[in-house]
Amino acid sequence: MGLDRRAFLGLVAGGTVGAMFTPIPWKLIDDASIWTQNWPWIPRVPKGQVDYVATTSKLCPAGEGLKIMRVAGNPILAGGNASHPLSCGGVSALARSEVYMLYSPARIKSPMKRNGKTFAPITWEQALVEMAEKLGAAKGAVASISGDNTGTINEVLTALTAKLGSAGSFMMPSEATTAAKAMKLMGVQGQAGYDFENADMVLVLGADIFETWGTSSRNRKAFGANRPAGAKPANTYVYVGPTRNNTAAVCDQWVPAAAADLGVVALGIAWHLLKAGATSNAPGFDTFKAVVNGGFGPEDVKRATGIAPETLATIAKALASAKAPLVVTGSPFGQGLGAAPVIAGMSLNMLLGRINKPGGVSMLPELPSVVPGALTRAAMLDGDLPAFLKGVESGKTPAPKALLIYDANPAYGLPEAATMAKALEKIPFKVSFSSFMDETAALCDLVLPNSLPLERYDDVATPYGSGFCVYSLVRPIQKPICDTKTTGDVLLGLARKLSIDLKFDNFQQVIKEKVASLTKVSGGFVAKDVMPWQVAAGKPAPALVGGDLWKALEAGYAWTMVGQAAQPAMGFAAEVLAKAVKAGKPATATVLAPYAQLRTGTPVTGMPCQDLTMVPDTELKGDTTFIRVNSETAKALSLKKGQSVKLSGAGVDCQAKVHIFESVMPGMVAAPLGFGHTAFDYYSQGKGANYLSLAAVAEEPGSGLSMWIAPEVKIA
Amino acid sequence: MEEKRSNSAGGVGGMALFALIGFVGALVVGWGIFPKMLYSQKTQPIRFSHTVHSQLGIECEQCHHLGPDGRFAGLPSTESCAECHGEETGDTSANGKEIDKFVKDYVKTGRQVPWLVYQYQPDNVFFSHAAHKGFECTKCHLDVAKTDTPPPYYENRLSGYSKDTMKMWECERCHASMGTSNACFVCHK
Amino acid sequence: MSGQKKEFPITWGMVIDIDKCTGCGACMASCQTENNVEPQREASNKLRATSWMLVYELTNDKAFPNHDIAYLPRPCQQCGNPPCVSVCPVIATDKNENGGIVSQVYPRCIGCRYCVAACPYHVRYFGWYDPIWPEGMDKTLSPMTSVRPRGVVEKCTFCHHRWTQAKDAARVAGKDPENLDDGAYVTSCVQNCPSGALAFGDIKNPKHKVHELVKSPYAFRLLERLGTETQVYYISRREWVRKLGDNYLKSE
C-alpha cells in the first residue's frame, strides 16, 4: 500500500484537522499579532527604579529649580520644583527641555581644533597644551565674553583673563546690563530686584516679564497667585509696548507705545504724579521736575506717542492710589534698551516711594566673591560688548590677540551680526566652551565643549529681576555623555599649566567655597516653609543652620536673602533723562519690533528639539518665518497676507512672509527672534531668518550705552 | 472495473489510515515539538541563588519592596547588591566564582544586570503591585524563592516575550471573577 | 450615537483659566516629554505634527486698537458622551472607567481614523511617521507611557498613568485610592504651567478646587450645544472669549 494521491490527501486532511486540536495555529496567530506590535525600530521604554533628584535650570535664564525624574539612574523628565522660589512648581518650555538636550544632535562630542574650514577632534591634553601656548603668547591682550549672568564660573573666567592681561571681560548684553548701567547712573549699587509677589498694581514698560524678562517663571507664578480663576483679580497689570505680546495678552490693559518711547511714557506718567503732588527728597529731584514739566506734558506725550492724555492720567491715578504699586522697565525682546528708559521707570518708583518697600524695588547686594582677582558682577555688567566689538571692527579699538567665549553666541545673539562677525574675524585666536555647535563655535580655533548642566556642578546666583537674593545649586546627576568637561575645571587646569594661582584645583571646590561664604552673609536663610516674599512682607526670616546648607541646596532648596544693600540715596539722574528722552515727532519709517520667546531657546541652546512643535504656523512654516503687521500697516506698505518679503537693515537682508496680526502698533513690524540659525542641528538650522541681524547699534546720548531698541527696516 | 473499485475501496481505507496518521502526527508535533521550537531557552546572566540569600535571613521585601510612592521596586539595582558584594572574593567555589563574575562585570563597570524577568509585560501595560498586594506572589510569579539556580527563561521566538508573561485573558478572567473593572485604562498605558 | 452621557462616581476634570494663559507653550513641552511624543523635525506642518496638548490663539477679530487676543490650551476634552467612541469599529477607544477618561489602546487601533473625523475638538492625532528620536535620546523616554508606532491614533489621556500612580501611593499610605486628596493626581501640563492657569481634580468631589471652579459664571465648555458634555472647562472674564466657545448666530 503506497502513498497514493488519496492517501496523501488523507494525510494532509488528518494533519490539518489534528493541527486544529493543537496550539499551533492559534498560538502562531496570537504571537504573530504580538510580533507586529513591536517593530525593532520602535524604541522600548526604559525599565528600572524611579527616583527624583533636584537641581536648577541653567539653560533657562529664569533659573527655575528643577525636579528631575530618573529611571535606573538616567534622567528622564525635568519638572518644576514646587519648593524652589523661582519655580514654585512651574517650568518654562526651555527648562523642560534640559533632559532631551543631553542628546541634542547639535552637541559637540569632544574637544576640537580648527583644521582649515573643518574641525578635527583632539584630546583634552592636546587642547590644554595648545591653549596654554597660544594664551601665553597673547598675554596682555586676552578678552573674554560670558553669556552666563548668574554663575560663579564668571569669577574663574575673569580672574584668569585678568591674570593673563585683560583686554576686557564682557557679559553678553541683556536686561541686566541695561539695568546695571541705569543703577550706576542713579548712584546706587546692587541689582534692581522687583517684588511682584507683594505688588498690587504693576506697570510694565516694555519688559516681556512673563516670557523673557528676568525670572519669568516666578513672575508668572506671582502674577497668577493673586488672580484666582474666575474671580476679581487682586492685582492689576498694565503693559506698555509695541505689540500685545505674551505678557500683554494677560495684562488688564495694553497701552500701545513704540519701544523707543518707553522713557517718554514714563515721564508722561511722572508729569501726572508730580501734578498730583508727588515729591521726593532724593538727589536731583528739582532738575527731574524741571525736565518732566519742561517737555512731557500730556500734549507733548500725545504728539510723540499717540497716547491719549486721559490714558496716562488714569494709569498715574491708579498707581498713586494703589497700596503697593510697582513699575518695571525693560526691552520687549530682552536686550537693546537704553539706560534712560530704565531710569525714567525707576523714577516713577521713587515718586511713588517704592524703593526698598514690600512690593517695591530693592537694590540687591552681590553675593561675596571667592576667587581672588575676579571681577564683580557689577564690573562685568559695566562693559559694553557691542561697542567694544564695533570698535574692533572699525579699528578704533585694538583687537585682542585671544578671546575666550563662555556660554555665549555673539556671532548670532548680537545686533548688527555682519559687523560683529567681522570683528570676531579680526581676533586671531578664539576659544569656545560651548556645549553645542553654535554659530560662534563654528568660527573658533578651539572648541572645548562644556558638560551640560545635568552633567556638571554650577550655580545660579540671583538672576536679574528676582525680588530677593537667591542662590541655588546645579549638580551633576548624570556622567558626561560625550567627551566633555566642566569649563570651570578646564580653566583651572589651564591656570595651573600657565603657573597662575587661582586658589582652587577644581570647580566643585569653588562652588563649595561659594556656598560656605553664604553662611556668613547675615539675614540669609533657606527658603523651605517661609518664602522670601513672605519675609519681605514682614514675616520673620528663619535662622540659617550653617552646616546643612550644602545638603539643603542639594535637596533643591534655595538660599535666599531679603532686603537691600546699605547705600547712599538713589538719585534721579535727570541730566541723563534730559539728554536721552525726547518727546519728539513720531517716527515715520517702518520700525522693527522684535519679540523673543523661551520656546525658541536662547542663542546658546538653539531651538530645543521638541519645542519646534510649539511654534505656530503663523510664526514658522516650512523654512520661512513670518513677520506680523496690522492691516493698517499692511495697507500702507501694500503687503498682503502670506506675501514673501525682504527686510533690510544694518546692511543685512532677511526673508519673511507676512502675517496680518492686529495687535501690533501701526508702522511696526513685529518679528520673532530665535530663528535663522546657520549652525546647530536640523531642528534649528535654516529655520527662518535671524531678524536681530537687521538691528543697527546706536549710542544712547547721556549714558553712552549701546542700544538697538527700535531699529528701522525697509520692506520690499 | 472491479479491480479499480477494490483499489478504490482499499484507497478509502488507506486514506482513513493516513488521515489518522496525519491527525496523530499533528497532535504530536503540535503538543510535543512545536512548543519546544517556539521558545528559545536562556539562562540568567548571573546565577543568583535565592536559597543562599534567604538562609542568611534576608527577607524577600528587602529587595522586592513597594516604595513609599506606591511603586514596586522590582529587582534591586547593582548598587544595592554591591552593598554586600562590592569586592571580588577570590573564592574558587562555584558560588564564589559567580559572585566575582557579578562584581567584575557589573559592579566595577557600573552597569545594571540585564536580568531576564519571567513576567515582564509589554510597554503598554501598567501593573500595580500595590493593588495586588493581597495576593500571594506565586499566584503570578514563578516560585523562585527556593531555587539555588534560577529556572531557565523561555523566550517566545516570535513575540519576544517570556513564556511566563501573563496573557490579557488571564488578567481579565481574574478581574471579572473578583468584580474588578476590566476597562482598558485600568491596565493599559 | 448612543446619545447618553456616561456618569461615573469620579469625574476628572480640568479647568483652564484663559485669562492667565500667556501662550508660552510650557504645557505642550511638558506633555510631549511626559507622553513620549517624539521631537518632530517638520513640526511646522501642522497637518502631520502631533501635539496632544495644543495652544490655540483666539482673537476678537477687531482691528487695531480694539483687537484682543487670548490663548486656549486644548487637551482631550474627555467628553461625557464621546463622539469618537461610538465610531470606533474595534473598541480601541472607550469611555468605560471610573474617572471618565476616554481611553485609547494603541495596539488595538487599526488606524481607520474614524475617530479623528468624529472628534469635534481635533484632539486626535494619526501617526503619519514612525517615531524617531535623535541618537541616544530614546534613553530619556518615559517608562510611564508606551511608544506608538506609525499608523495608529493617539490623544491626550489626562496623564492617566499619573492617576494609577497616585492610587498606588494612596494604597501604600493606607488611604482610599478612590478618594484622592486634591492635587494628589494632576496632569503634567497642570503641574508645570508657570502661570498656574490650569487646575485639575475630581469635579464631583467637593473637597477638590475644581468642584467650585466649574460653577463659576465665567466658566464654559467648548461646543456645549453638541451635547458632548466635556470634562474640560474654560474660564474667562472676557465675554468675547466665552462666545468663541461655541458657534453662535449673530442674533444670539
TrEMBL record, chain A:
<dbReference type="GO" id="GO:0016491">
    <property type="term" value="F:oxidoreductase activity"/>
</dbReference>
<dbReference type="InterPro" id="IPR006657">
    <property type="entry name" value="MoPterin_dinucl-bd_dom"/>
</dbReference>
<dbReference type="InterPro" id="IPR009010">
    <property type="entry name" value="Asp_de-COase-like_dom_sf"/>
</dbReference>
<dbReference type="InterPro" id="IPR006656">
    <property type="entry name" value="Mopterin_OxRdtase"/>
</dbReference>
<keyword id="KW-0500">Molybdenum</keyword>
<feature type="domain" description="Molybdopterin oxidoreductase">
    <location>
        <begin position="107"/>
        <end position="457"/>
    </location>
</feature>
<dbReference type="GO" id="GO:0051539">
    <property type="term" value="F:4 iron, 4 sulfur cluster binding"/>
</dbReference>
<keyword id="KW-0408">Iron</keyword>
<keyword id="KW-0732">Signal</keyword>
<comment type="similarity">
    <text>Belongs to the prokaryotic molybdopterin-containing oxidoreductase family.</text>
</comment>
<feature type="domain" description="Molybdopterin dinucleotide-binding">
    <location>
        <begin position="623"/>
        <end position="693"/>
    </location>
</feature>
<keyword id="KW-0411">Iron-sulfur</keyword>
<dbReference type="Pfam" id="PF00384">
    <property type="entry name" value="Molybdopterin"/>
</dbReference>
<keyword id="KW-0479">Metal-binding</keyword>
<dbReference type="GO" id="GO:0046872">
    <property type="term" value="F:metal ion binding"/>
</dbReference>
TrEMBL record, chain B:
<dbReference type="InterPro" id="IPR020942">
    <property type="entry name" value="Cyt_c_III_dom"/>
</dbReference>
<keyword id="KW-0349">Heme</keyword>
<keyword id="KW-0472">Membrane</keyword>
<keyword id="KW-0812">Transmembrane</keyword>
<dbReference type="GO" id="GO:0020037">
    <property type="term" value="F:heme binding"/>
</dbReference>
<feature type="binding site" description="covalent">
    <location>
        <position position="64"/>
    </location>
    <ligand>
        <name>heme c</name>
    </ligand>
</feature>
<feature type="binding site" description="axial binding residue">
    <location>
        <position position="60"/>
    </location>
    <ligand>
        <name>heme c</name>
    </ligand>
</feature>
<dbReference type="GO" id="GO:0046872">
    <property type="term" value="F:metal ion binding"/>
</dbReference>
<feature type="binding site" description="axial binding residue">
    <location>
        <position position="81"/>
    </location>
    <ligand>
        <name>heme c</name>
    </ligand>
</feature>
<keyword id="KW-0813">Transport</keyword>
<dbReference type="GO" id="GO:0009055">
    <property type="term" value="F:electron transfer activity"/>
</dbReference>
<feature type="binding site" description="axial binding residue">
    <location>
        <position position="50"/>
    </location>
    <ligand>
        <name>heme c</name>
    </ligand>
</feature>
<dbReference type="Pfam" id="PF02085">
    <property type="entry name" value="Cytochrom_CIII"/>
</dbReference>
<feature type="binding site" description="axial binding residue">
    <location>
        <position position="63"/>
    </location>
    <ligand>
        <name>heme c</name>
    </ligand>
</feature>
<feature type="transmembrane region" description="Helical">
    <location>
        <begin position="12"/>
        <end position="34"/>
    </location>
</feature>
TrEMBL record, chain C:
<feature type="domain" description="4Fe-4S ferredoxin-type">
    <location>
        <begin position="67"/>
        <end position="98"/>
    </location>
</feature>
<feature type="domain" description="4Fe-4S ferredoxin-type">
    <location>
        <begin position="100"/>
        <end position="129"/>
    </location>
</feature>
<dbReference type="InterPro" id="IPR050954">
    <property type="entry name" value="ET_IronSulfur_Cluster-Binding"/>
</dbReference>
<feature type="domain" description="4Fe-4S ferredoxin-type">
    <location>
        <begin position="12"/>
        <end position="42"/>
    </location>
</feature>
<keyword id="KW-0004">4Fe-4S</keyword>
<dbReference type="GO" id="GO:0046872">
    <property type="term" value="F:metal ion binding"/>
</dbReference>
<dbReference type="InterPro" id="IPR053552">
    <property type="entry name" value="Menaquinone_reductase_QrcC"/>
</dbReference>
<dbReference type="Pfam" id="PF13247">
    <property type="entry name" value="Fer4_11"/>
</dbReference>
<dbReference type="InterPro" id="IPR017896">
    <property type="entry name" value="4Fe4S_Fe-S-bd"/>
</dbReference>
<dbReference type="InterPro" id="IPR017900">
    <property type="entry name" value="4Fe4S_Fe_S_CS"/>
</dbReference>
<keyword id="KW-0411">Iron-sulfur</keyword>
<dbReference type="Pfam" id="PF12797">
    <property type="entry name" value="Fer4_2"/>
</dbReference>
<keyword id="KW-0408">Iron</keyword>
<protein>
    <submittedName>
        <fullName>Fe-S-cluster-containing hydrogenase subunit</fullName>
    </submittedName>
</protein>
<keyword id="KW-0479">Metal-binding</keyword>
